[in-house]
Amino acid sequence: MRTYLLLLFCVALYGSNFVLGSLLLEAFPALHLSAYRLLVSSAFLLIYLVATRGLAKITFRDFVYLVPFVLIGMLLHQVSFFTGLRTTDATTASLILSLAPIFTALFARLFLKEPLTIRMAAGSIVALAGVFLVVGTGGSMGTAITEGVWIMFICMLALSGSMILMKKLTERMDAFVATVYTTVLGCISVYPVAVWSEPRVQVQPQFWWWVLLVGSALLIQGLCAVIWNAQIRKVGAAKASLFLNLQPFVAMILGYITLGTPISLTQVAGSVLIISGVVLATVQGQRTRKTQDDKLKLSPTER
């Protein structure tokens, strides 16, 4: 339950990232925004690592998963996320990224041999139906398939792939150490792309824009990354990804609070489906696993 609560905390901030990202794009170019946030989170995580544990050695075999994660989970994901938000509204973006649990479960079955249970599949379908209700009533389902939609789809695939790679990476090294190194290397990889694709950019936002950027970087890309990667190791990539279905629900609530966007009864019903789907695939799965563990403790005769 503690793991699930931590995942919910992360998803609450991840859901707000769609709104915060859209706001920050009014003051910062897309790729520069990604580079700045990674720079802030990298500095924070690296200082904390050195102060508490010291730098850990990385072997050549670690780079087998470290380099692909940086290229897919950091460079491709960050670039596609902020580039897609320039031409796609936050609601549509949250819908597309809510497909990540389905693809993560498929990737986990293929590459990690994680079980794809009937309960987990049913929970994914129920939650996904809720996602379509939540965002579809706002008109986003009627939008054309624009370039931004395709970019967000690529972002979703990168997110799914990164969770598989992080699961393998945390089997070889501590989750926090893996988070620090991937974030730092991600910053190093994103910044040249930002300079090359958006040259001669003069960023002169007001002070409060910088406060929002730094705060979101520390919480979403710093603290949440540490918590999320640690919990993936405990519950598996497929099950952790199910919580991403809650992102549109968070974006809807945050939009209502900050922007005054009305919430319809259909959206409320969709939110109930989302929560029900996550509960079906997680809490019930935990009970089943506990029953199986109890059976293993019995002697062959007692079984």
TrEMBL record:
Pfam families: EamA. The keyword Metal-binding does not apply. It is a multi-pass membrane protein. It is found in: Cell membrane. The chain crosses the membrane at residues 31-51, 63-85, 91-112, 124-142, 148-166, 175-195, 207-228, 240-259, 265-283. It comes from the Bacteria. Residues 3-135, 148-282 form the EamA domain. The keyword Protein transport does not apply. Keywords: Cell membrane, Membrane, Transmembrane, Transmembrane helix. Gene3D superfamilies: 1.10.3730.20. Belongs to the EamA transporter family. This is Membrane protein. It comes from Paenibacillus woosongensis.
